[in-house]
Design a protein that fits this description.
The chain has 3 domains: 112 residues, 3-Layer(aba) Sandwich (Glutaredoxin); 85 residues, Tetratricopeptide repeat domain (Serine Threonine Protein Phosphatase 5, Tetratricopeptide repeat); 82 residues, Serine Threonine Protein Phosphatase 5, Tetratricopeptide repeat (Alpha Horseshoe). It has a 5-stranded mixed β-sheet with strand order 1-3-2-4-5, sandwiched between helices. Helix content is 57%, strand content 10%. The protein has 295 residues and is an alpha/beta fold. The longest helix is centred in the first third of the chain and has 15 residues.
Length: 295
């Protein structure tokens, strides 16, 4: 298929999500709403196709016949056609109605094309920092987050990321200082909540409850001792044995949901938040906790 043609597609309601919404996350998408009986549509569509073909793949044209596929036009509250909408990052950002001349169509596209060509410097730094974090290069990640904070001291993703760099390198005081730059209420929301939870776990791990074998022996002698179970769970957590820590905390909840004002439940939520919403241990752990709490 010709490369220019591949960026001009006919869209149905069924394919709208893939061809427009998802595609707009990586390139600028023009949605052309038209109908066979519409004279101005026949004038505009060839102009749109020409401008898109000249963009060398930076723009996609998605053509939708509203006689056959009326749902999207209704959702966008279109009252006349032709109607063109520019989509970026999964949402419409601008549009126009009527058959514009080629010069005005070019101006419309160029106005939004800069955003579609690539990430902003801030987005690029965040991507660089995330990649460095994933590779365990906390020095490189901290440098990128630091640059972001120089440009925008209130950037919450950079604050959370830099605090996590400090946590991973054992600099808990610095991590605490960074997080304290933000009011307490804001630290309860993502992405700061995950960093705050990670700091809580790291501070707990800095003061271990005791040797595994000693705690396990103590629990073997007193299997119903909830404090012994809790201390062992924190010890497992300190040793990064997170599955065992979660299992032990869930066992406490199963025996007594309200023990120590719900300490085991609170600790579980902190662990899940620190692990991250999509972490397999957190996903499974939340399911098990819910079944215990709402059984």
């Amino acid at each position: 298929m010709n490369e220019a043609v591949s960026h001009i597609v006919d869209v149905t309601t069924q394919s709208f999500m893939a061809d427009v919404i998802e595609t707009s996350k990586t390139q600028l998408v023009l949605l052309d709403l038209w109908a066979p009986w519409c004279g101005p549509c026949k004038q505009l569509t060839p102009i749109l196709e020409k401008v898109v073909a000249a963009s060398n793949g930076a723009v996609r044209l998605a053509k939708m016949n509203i006689d056959e596929e009326p749902a999207v036009a209704q959702q966008l509250q279109v009252q006349s056609i032709p109607a063109v909408f520019a989509f970026k990052n999964g949402r419409p950002i601008d549009g126009f109605m009527g058959a514009l001349p080629e010069s005005q169509v070019k101006e419309f596209v160029e106005r939004h094309l800069g955003d579609a060509l690539g990430p902003s410097p801030e987005e690029a730094l965040l991507e660089m920092a995330s990649a460095a974090m994933a590779q365990g290069d906390y020095a490189q990640a901290a440098q990128a987050y630091g640059q972001l904070l120089q440009a925008d001291p209130a950037n919450k993703e950079a604050i959370a990321g830099l605090s996590l760099c400090y946590i991973h390198t054992g600099q808990l005081d610095q991590a605490r200082d960074i997080l304290n730059m933000v009011p307490a209420l804001e630290r309860e929301r993502e992405p700061l909540a995950a960093a705050q939870a990670a700091l809580t776990l790291a501070e707990q791990s800095a003061h271990p409850q005791g040797d595994f074998s000693e705690l396990e022996a103590r629990l073997a002698e007193h299997p119903q001792d909830l404090q012994a179970q809790y201390d062992l769970a924190l010890a497992y957590q300190s040793g990064n044995r997170m599955q065992e820590a979660i299992d032990m905390l869930l066992a406490i909840v199963a025996q007594n949901k309200e023990w120590q004002d719900g300490a085991a439940r609170t600790q579980l939520l902190t662990v899940f938040q620190a692990l991250g919403f999509d972490h397999p241990l957190a996903v499974e752990g939340r399911k098990r906790l819910s079944s215990l709490l709402f059984a």
